Amino acid sequence: MGQGRYVARIGWVGALALLGACASSGGRDYSGMSFSDTPLEGKVIWNDLVTEDGAAARRFYGSLFGWTYEQTVSAGGRPYSLARAGGIYVAGIVEAPRPAGGLSITRWVPYFSVADVDASVARASALGGRAEIAPRNVPLGRIAVVTDTEQAVIGLVRSRIGDPDDATTRAAPGRVVWHELPSNDPSQAANFMREVTALVPRDIARRGGTYTMLASGGIERAGILKNPGANWQPQWLTHFGVEDPAAAAQRAVQLGGKLLLAPSPELREGTVAVITDPGGAILVLHKLGAPT
Q1: Which domains does the chain possess?
Q2: Are 72 and 20 a contacting pair, CB within 8 Å?
Q3: Whole-number mean pLDDT of the chain?
Q4: 142 vs 269, more confident
Q5: d(Cα 184, Cα 148) in Å, to the nearest integer?
Q6: Is 1 helix (H, G, I), strand (E, B) or coil?
Q7: Per residue in 186-211, is it b (16+ CB within 10 Å) or e — as a string?
């Protein structure tokens, strides 16, 4: 968030990773997972980390969250790692070199389940967003990557094997537990997500001002808040479950990460810490059981 403006057209990197690795069913062990027969519209069903140093990222997240990895190669020939936590596939790590111009593209990218990828991309474009990766078929379904009007990147997925259900993705240490977008225009961002992903926005009042919950089928899937930093580029933040955010943040720093916001009573009652990994990707350490 404090890393300056990113170029808009970076989403293709994560999409190519999905095309080449996560999208392939060959040799994958799904025995510990269960899947919904119908799309869980609006749910994030996959997350990719785009990084310049895959080895450093694997060491960091493996030590911090206990992840194990399966190595493969993306469609673009880049090394790609599938991360597992407790027998569940939780994320992918794709290596990508820094582009000309020197701006880092390191970040987490969420992929939202939608009923119709092509229709969602068309709505995103009509609202002023842009298709970074046009809809295309992959072995496990159909995907696209878009940016909204503030250049926040999201992936769109329609899976042929079904979406990991909520029992599979329940909160646990080292798993993704929430996603949220600090936006310069929360109302516009909420409308974009409603039209593109079918998530239904609902504003609530809490410390720090209005927060917009995004829900589908009565289940809260993500959130949007007013961007707290004038110079912070809006981007989706991925929250990972931990038992103790303060201890996890301290461990992250020891592993080469940086502490951006320490747990404090003023920051969601001390239930979160905001850090970067060694490559600069921002993530949130979220106390298990704490409200989103």
Answers
A1: 11-164 (3.10.180.10), 176-287 (3.10.180.10)
A2: yes
A3: 88
A4: 142
A5: 12
A6: coil
A7: bebbbebbbbbbbbbbeeeeeeeeeb
Query: CA 179, 183, 188 angle in degrees (round to 5)?
Result: 105
User: Which pTM does this prediction carry?
Assistant: 0.90
CB distance 112 to 155 below 8 Å: yes
The reported pLDDT for the residue numbered 35 is: 94
Residue 84, both tokens? 């597992």
Residue corresponding to tokens 């999201």: 154
4 vs 199, more confident: 199
Q: Residue 70 forms beta bridges with which residues?
A: 82
The set of residues, in sequence order, having a beta carbon less than 8 Å from that of 26 and lying 6+ positions away, is none
pLDDT at 76: 62
Query: Max alpha carbon distance in the chain (Å)?
Result: 47
- Range with the lowest mean pLDDT among 24-28, 88-92, 176-180, 236-240? 24-28
Q: List the one residue out of 86, 229, 94 whose CA is nearest residue 168.
A: 86
CA neighbor of 178 nearest in space, from 35, 252, 286, 74:
286
**DSSP character at residue 70:** E
The alpha helices in the chain, defined as continuous H runs, are 11-17, 54-65, 117-126, 186-197, 245-254
